[in-house]
Specification:
It is a single chain. This protein has 248 residues and is an alpha/beta fold. The protein has a single domain, classed as 3-Layer(aba) Sandwich (Rossmann fold), CATH 3.40.50. The chain is built from nine helices and 13 strands. A seven-stranded mixed sheet has the order 3-2-1-4-5-13-12, sandwiched between helices. Strands 6-7 form a two-stranded antiparallel sheet. Helix 4 links the parallel strand 2 and strand 3. Helix 5 crosses helix 7. The chain is globular, with a radius of gyration of 18 Å. It binds S-adenosylmethionine. S-adenosylmethionine (SAM) binds next to helix 1.
């Protein structure tokens, strides 16, 4: 089954707690840290919070009033068990069960790219944020996630390219078109998600009413070099994720 977060929740949580999820540890969370403001006294929403581990990082930035929401009921059950200092609710990011102008800050790691309608999610986040409230979120970068798998000289590669064969131009992968993709993990987990260009997200955020304050493209941090050289070598040039900081 695709996107079975209930089935893999426990395994994902154990990997996150042990720092075994390399994309989170070496790319995505360091990128988010660079954009996180001081959250002291702020009412914070974690959107697509999974099993709640990101609350530890938000605590470090001063947040004490944190609510998490996720579609996966099993993830929410584990989050409640693990982080009793936060509030957790099972629910859908397309229809948030909160009043207008309720939160100061909305944080979302690698969850918004599961929506086929990001514009509607941005509008919903805008609704629940207070005036001057901020949204920080990350999604897959098209340079990494909108590629196609090809074998080149015996090596499995993910490629975005264009070329010409017998006068016929062709393209591999897509950067510009918002499109559904699937990723198959070694443990049998299959995730399907949507990838769009940075300019598409800028356009939809502005349409929802946001002002974009910052943007980052996440590559592997240098600390990873001594811990897992091959991983660092693979991901230190091409961004795997991107993050947007937007203000209401
Ligand atoms: C890759 S996980 C990220 C979890 C967590 N933010 C982290 O970084 O560890 C994506 C999460 O998004 C949640 N999700 C997917 N679609 C959702 C929706 N429509 N509403 C709320 N959560 C959703 C999934 O259940 C999953 O827990």
């Amino acid at each position: 089954m695709v996107n079975d977060y209930d089935k893999f929740a426990k395994e994902r949580q154990e990997q996150l707690k042990k720092g075994l999820k390399r994309p989170h540890r070496f790319i995505e969370k360091p990128m988010m840290r660079e954009l996180l403001p001081n959250l002291e006294g702020k009412k914070v929403l974690m959107l697509g919070c999974g099993t709640g581990e990101e609350s530890i990082m938000l605590n470090e930035f001063g947040a004490t009033n944190i609510t998490g929401i996720d579609l996966s009921e099993e993830s929410i059950r584990l989050a409640k068990e693990s982080y009793p200092n936060c509030e957790f609710i099972a629910g859908d990011m397309h229809k948030l069960p909160f009043d207008d102008n309720y939160f100061d800050f909305v944080y979302s790691s690698l969850a918004l790219h599961y929506s086929e309608e990001p514009e509607n999610v941005y509008k919903e986040i805008y609704r629940v944020l207070k005036k001057d409230g901020r949204l920080l979120f990350s999604v897959g970068h098209p340079l990494r996630w909108a590629c196609e798998e090809k074998e080149i000289e015996g090596i499995k590669c993910r490629v975005i390219a264009h070329g010409t064969s017998d006068d016929t131009p062709y393209e591999i992968g897509n950067y510009n078109t918002f499109k559904k993709h699937e990723h198959h993990f070694k443990n049998g987990e299959v995730l399907s998600f949507y990838v769009g260009s940075p300019s598409m997200h800028f356009k939809l955020l502005k349409k929802a009413g946001f002002t974009i304050e910052d943007f980052k493209e996440g590559i592997c941090i240098d600390e990873a070099k001594d811990i897992d050289y091959n991983y660092w070598n693979k991901y230190h040039e091409i961004p795997e994720f991107m993050a947007f900081l937007a203000k209401k």
